[in-house]
Amino acid sequence: MSPTLISSGPGRAALLRAVVPVVALCGVLGAALSFLVPTTATAGPTVKVAQAEPVQPGFQRFAWLNAWADHHTAPGGAAADRLDGVPRMRIVVGHLRRTLIDFGVLAEVEAPQREAFESFGREYALVSTPDATDDAVFYRRSVFRLVSRDTVTMYYRHGARVSAPVVVLEERSSGQRVGVLPVHFPASLPSAPGQKRWRDLNARVVKDVVARAEVPIVVAGDFNQRNDILCDLTSPGTGLVSPLAEHEKCATARRAPIDQAFLSPSLQPDRYQVYSGPSARRATDHGAFYQVRVRLSDIP
């Protein structure tokens, strides 16, 4: 039996039966197990950012950012005067390469950006979905190998169903495993008000995945929420931790960004960093790249 992030058996069946009433009006949360063979990529250029020191043994660097879907800056898009999606992805890959990132999440990516990432980032593999716009997991091939990939149904604007990959990676040097769930919750906008119900439903999906996880997990991406989701996902009932603040201080902590990461406590996140220089401002409308160090194994 191939290892997965999400457990199976009677417990899972009971849990799914319990979830059905919650999503009766908006669809049924589904998970379908599938497997992915990483694709081959070619090398690409880098951009100038501060050079990171080599990570200590037993630690890896995790990064996340909103990649700003290609259609926004494509001809005819609302931001067609900004840098197009492909050169923006070149900036992203260069940043990951220069800061020695080992794995992470890209929210809001489309086909030209996925293709660009695989073309420019030879050292990384990308795990995505067939959705036109999706959230992807990437990892450094020399550091991790792909163990398994599940797909979980989440909800975007007006309840549109989207697929998110739930990935299990294994650190090659230690055999330690970690799960990654990328997310992109819908924002409430003047053109699309009242999206909180779908963000709340997605939070339940996240909690369900976390509750069934058999390995330490990272949930990261664009939550389109700030301290409210920080408090929710670090609550004792969920059990995740944030590099921004402890649960007891979540409500009074500094205003959180909408791009956040939540981790199992055993990953011991530290050295949280935000890059908000010119490269980040060109690559994403959020104007920042994020990273944190995580511990996957004991230092020899």
Write a structural description:
Helix content is 23%, strand content 29%. It is an alpha+beta fold. The chain has one domain: 4-Layer Sandwich (Deoxyribonuclease I, Chain A), CATH 3.60.10.10. A 6-stranded mixed sheet has the order 1-6-7-8-9-10, with helices on one face. Strands 4-5-3-2-12-11 form a 6-stranded mixed sheet, covered by helices on one side. β8, α5 and β9 form a beta-alpha-beta unit. α3 packs across α4. The protein is globular and about 50 Å long. Pfam families: Exo_endo_phos.
Number of strands: 12
Query: Radius of gyration from the CA trace?
Result: 18 Å
Q: According to CATH, what is the topology?
A: Deoxyribonuclease I, Chain A
Going by CATH, the homologous superfamily would be Endonuclease/exonuclease/phosphatase
Percentage of residues in strands: 25-35%
Protein name: Endonuclease/exonuclease/phosphatase family protein
Keywords: Endonuclease, Exonuclease, Hydrolase, Nuclease
InterPro entries: Endo/exonu/phosph_ase_sf, Endo/exonuclease/phosphatase
GO molecular function, one term: endonuclease activity
What's this, in brief?
It holds the Pfam family Exo_endo_phos. This is Endonuclease/exonuclease/phosphatase family protein. This protein is of the alpha+beta class and 300 residues long.
